[in-house]
Description:
Blueprint: H1 3-11, H2 20-36, H3 38-42, H4 45-67, H5 73-99, H6 113-130, H7 132-140, H8 145-148, H9 157-164, H10 170-185, H11 187-195, H12 199-226, H13 250-278
Helix pairs in contact: 2-9, 4-5, 6-13, 9-10, 10-12, 11-12, 12-13
Amino acid sequence: MNTDAVSVAMIAPRPAWISLMWIVPFTMLLTWLIYALPALSESGFLALAVRLIAHGLIALGLWLGLEKTALTPGQRQATWLAVMIPFTLWAAVTWTAAINGAFRIGAYPLPLLPAAILLPVVIGAPVLLLSTRVGLLLDTMPVTWLIALQLYRVLGSQWLVYWLRGVLPGLWAVPAGTGDVLTGLFAVPVAIALAAGTIEGQKGAILWNIFGLADLAVAIILGMIMSPGPIQLIIPSGPSMGVDTFPNVLTPAFVVPGSILLHALSLRQMLRRNRAETA
């Protein structure tokens, strides 16, 4: 019996879908707060709180996972710093740029937002997917962590709220917001089902990762072709796109590429686990 199965047996012996009984009300309450208190999301406080929590969980999970590897203490520390320092600098630079309006359309001759979305994936994915030490780390970490962490995706309900207020076009907000909410809602149930070690749980986790990646791809593509600029192909009949200012721009500039990398790591982890079990 693996670590995940033991965790489920001790913490959550009920069916995975039972977790929706608290996740759904939590998401509905969060959505209501965003709708009733516009200043909550517009101030950036909510985004800051969620990012700090996620940042701390990633740092803690990385350290706990490294402690289970055969690496020496010095190698563990070096690996932890090699991941967390660039990750923290990335978050700090993106946050500072967003506050200073660097991602605004027209702020520079060449828009920075597409680069902020794609460059971290282009640079980070090969490192995370090919690194031997990252592979060893993934082998020791519970497969549930990388999936359950994306519970934060329920915050995508803010796009649906903005659509209802007439701030964002529905053509972008509805698919992007709905996809994010569904990904976040099922993150914990999928993680629990995967921890049970069944074939159905593994298939569900793979489908969840694919759905989450597809949701992000749709949001990126629609956002690019609907935003004012040289590649705009769709001009909304209602409100125009307005996610290039703080704090909303933090989602495409930081959360989206970060979520893509988490999905990629989750899929790599499950692939390595399946290969090891087969061998």
